[in-house]
User: Which sequence fits this backbone?
């Protein structure tokens, strides 16, 4: 990776549960002032709190450029509904949506639904990969321009531009087409944590952004190279994905205690991917790893969102911008444009209407 390759930065805005949407709006706006690529909002069936995708749908009209990426659990949920919800977020945000695919592995979470028992992680990640696959097919099931809206003739849709996906997976089948027109980005951005284990193959095959965990730039570079190699083995161009190091950050003073209730917030990055120090040193770390070609960027999880995100934006990001290492404005309007990713072609249009 060339040292001139664009640096990408994202941040988590979750933490202890909040029930006032203004909390998330303010954090997203703060991240937007720093021109971050996107914010994530963690979610799971194992914790109390608002639904992440619904919250970011509320944040969307209160922001203009920042990408919005909720965690969406594919276990115990219907792929058709997942696809529709993420496509809806892309529409209401005017092309700024993504989704962070996750799975639910515990029996306690399975009992919340009562439809199936807990399953091994490998099986669930295969299902998550199939959900990502069928979602992309459903997003393509409406070609661009399928909506006519011709009042004079009474034609709303060009039926020749709607397609059945006829997908059969291990645990579900989906006929299609979608009920939501093709999203502004074509495909909203898919994010998967692919450090290792069962999620690795799903990330290499389906993710646009892969989150990894590493404690040294050499380790990160090795993981990035492996992710790109796996993606190429699936027929993907390695430059069609971005690899970001997931780093939990604590920018408080040594004597400052974490925010109360943190155990209800997002999990700390595993494997030692934890930074504690000041904003300046964090900027140095980011710049050093990126210059070394180890990563495409960082996904930062503030241990105390209100305090640490402000220090990330006004300290770390401001310093990187001052050194011309990170942009000061958004050159485009969609999340794909922020990430330097092309809008995918529609597979059915390319195939002349055949899947």
Assistant:
């Amino acid at each position: 990776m060339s040292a001139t390759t664009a640096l990408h930065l994202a941040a988590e805005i979750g933490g202890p549960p909040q029930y006032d949407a203004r909390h998330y709006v303010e954090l997203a706006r703060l991240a937007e002032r720093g021109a971050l690529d996107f914010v994530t909002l963690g979610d799971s069936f194992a914790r109390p709190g608002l639904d992440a995708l619904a919250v970011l749908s509320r944040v969307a009209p209160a922001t203009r450029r920042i990408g919005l990426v909720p965690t969406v659990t594919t276990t115990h949920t219907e792929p058709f509904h997942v696809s529709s919800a993420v496509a809806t977020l892309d529409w209401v945000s005017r092309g700024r949506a993504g989704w962070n695919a996750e799975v639910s592995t515990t029996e306690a979470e399975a009992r919340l639904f009562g439809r199936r028992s807990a399953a091994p992680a490998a099986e669930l990640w295969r299902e998550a990969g199939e959900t990502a696959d069928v979602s992309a097919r459903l997003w393509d099931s409406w070609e661009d321009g399928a909506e006519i809206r011709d009042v004079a003739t009474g034609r709303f849709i060009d039926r020749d531009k709607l397609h059945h996906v006829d997908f059969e997976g291990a645990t579900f089948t989906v006929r299609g087409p979608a009920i939501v027109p093709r999203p502004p980005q074509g495909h909203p951005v898919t994010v998967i944590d692919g450090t290792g284990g069962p999620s690795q193959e799903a990330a290499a095959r389906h993710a646009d952004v892969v989150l990894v965990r590493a404690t040294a730039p050499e380790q990160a570079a090795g993981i990035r190279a492996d992710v790109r190699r796996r993606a190429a083995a699936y027929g993907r161009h390695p430059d069609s994905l971005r690899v970001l190091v997931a780093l939990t950050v604590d920018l408080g003073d040594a004597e400052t205690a974490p925010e109360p209730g943190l155990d209800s917030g997002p999990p700390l990055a595993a494997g030692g991917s934890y930074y504690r120090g000041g904003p300046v040193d964090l900027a140095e770390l980011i710049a050093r790893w990126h210059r070394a070609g180890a990563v495409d960027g960082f996904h930062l999880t503030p241990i105390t969102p209100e305090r640490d995100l402000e220090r990330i934006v006004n300290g770390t990001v401001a310093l990187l911008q001052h050194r011309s290492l990170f942009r000061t404005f958004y050159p485009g309007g969609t999340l794909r444009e922020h990430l330097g990713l092309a809008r995918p072609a529609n597979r059915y249009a390319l195939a002349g209407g055949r899947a």
User: Anything to note?
Assistant: Confidence is low (pLDDT under 50) at residues 254-271. DSSP finds eleven helices and 13 strands in the chain. The first helix runs from residue 21 to 33. The radius of gyration is 20 Å.
